[in-house]
């Protein structure tokens, strides 16, 4: 490519400012996305609204046709995610922005403490938890067991890759304590993480509680309360019970294994099908030879 062509190509992509409302339907105010219709005068309307209306809401024309030029425009308009300040680097077509942000894992997370309005990225939230509220924090590695004493209150768990988990322990009278665990992440109901907790509350007592899929939460609804295990009280009544915790990504590995098994089975079925076709072809060739003879 010549230098002049490179310059001309760069000129075709520039940052521009525009009123984004021109890319919204004037009836439902949702962003235009293909297919886009226009009346005979040139007023635009989205396909959803066109199906509900018999005439143009701006000029009362009744005939519409598809506007491929406007579709090309809206497909070329890329905008940053509103959560770029929290770490999202994606550029999205304008009409997909809303759906992307509803599922974006970089959405803000919130401090669950009453009367605290702080929100931010995972990194800033971790600093807020440990500095502002003085909540204890334990740094751990996936698949490596670590120990925590059973104490009522919040305990922050931080993986070596920066991922945050929040463990909340509450008294459950007269039994003992309930333990809740969530993965601190926005817009993701289920995570790829699993958790095993082993403990012994008294002599000859050994118990294991497993959480196959740790729930994700932005903590906008407050502290987690859906405890997945109950730890019986120690005979002394004190905080003598030790939790042996392992957090892993086993769920993701299982999903990968299942996908590999499905792929293998599909390949075997295709190979069996090809083998049967080859056998059929051989039989046809034998039949033709017999006829010739």
TrEMBL record:
Protein's pathway: Protein modification; protein ubiquitination
Source superkingdom: Eukaryota
Keyword Metal-binding: yes
Matches recorded under InterPro entries: ARM-type_fold, E3_ubiquitin-ligase_SINA, Sina-like_RING, Znf_RING, Znf_RING/FYVE/PHD, Znf_SIAH
Region (Disordered): 253-293
Reactions performed catalytically: S-ubiquitinyl-[E2 ubiquitin-conjugating enzyme]-L-cysteine + [acceptor protein]-L-lysine = [E2 ubiquitin-conjugating enzyme]-L-cysteine + N(6)-ubiquitinyl-[acceptor protein]-L-lysine
The keyword Zinc-finger is annotated on this UniProt entry: yes
UniProt cross-references to SUPFAM superfamilies, sorted A to Z: ARM repeat (SSF48371), TRAF domain-like (SSF49599)
Listed Acidic residues bias regions: 255-293
Start and end residues of each RING-type domain: 25-60
GO cellular component terms given for this protein: cytoplasm
Documented EC number(s): 2.3.2.27
UniProt GO BP: protein ubiquitination
Domain SIAH-type: 76-134
One Pfam match: Sina_RING
Signal peptide region: none
Keywords: Metal-binding, Transferase, Ubl conjugation pathway, Zinc, Zinc-finger
An annotated Gene Ontology molecular function: ubiquitin protein ligase activity
Family membership: Belongs to the SINA (Seven in absentia) family.
Name by which UniProt lists this protein: RING-type E3 ubiquitin transferase
Organism name: Leersia perrieri
């Amino acid at each position: 490519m010549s230098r002049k062509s490179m310059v001309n190509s760069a000129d075709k992509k520039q940052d521009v400012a525009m009123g984004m409302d021109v890319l919204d339907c004037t009836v439902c105010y949702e962003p235009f996305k293909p297919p886009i219709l226009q009346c005979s005068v040139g007023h635009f309307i989205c396909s959803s609204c066109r199906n509900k209306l018999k005439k143009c809401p701006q000029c009362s024309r009744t005939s519409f046709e598809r506007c491929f030029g406007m579709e090309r425009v809206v497909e070329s308009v890329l905008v940053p995610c509103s959560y770029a300040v929290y770490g999202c680097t994606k550029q999205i077509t304008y009409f997909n922005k809303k759906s992307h942000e509803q599922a974006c894992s970089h959405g803000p997370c919130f401090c669950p403490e009453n009367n605290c309005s702080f929100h931010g990225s995972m990194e800033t939230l971790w600093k807020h938890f440990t500095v502002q509220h003085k909540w204890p924090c334990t740094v751990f590695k996936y698949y490596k067991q670590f120990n925590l004493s059973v104490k009522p209150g919040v305990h922050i768990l931080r993986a070596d890759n920066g991922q945050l988990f929040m463990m909340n322990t509450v008294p459950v009278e007269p039994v003992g304590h309930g333990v809740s665990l969530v993965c601190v992440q926005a817009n993701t109901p289920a995570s790829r993480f699993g958790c095993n907790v082993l403990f012994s509350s008294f002599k000859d007592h050994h118990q294991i509680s497993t959480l196959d899929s740790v729930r994700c939460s932005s903590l906008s609804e407050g502290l987690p309360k859906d405890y997945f295990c109950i730890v019986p009280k120690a005979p002394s009544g004190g905080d003598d019970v030790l939790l042996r915790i392992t957090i892993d990504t086993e769920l993701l590995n299982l999903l990968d294994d299942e996908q590999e098994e499905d792929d293998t089975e599909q390949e075997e079925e295709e190979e069996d099908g090809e083998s049967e076709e080859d056998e059929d072809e051989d039989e046809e060739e034998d039949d033709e030879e017999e006829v010739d003879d």
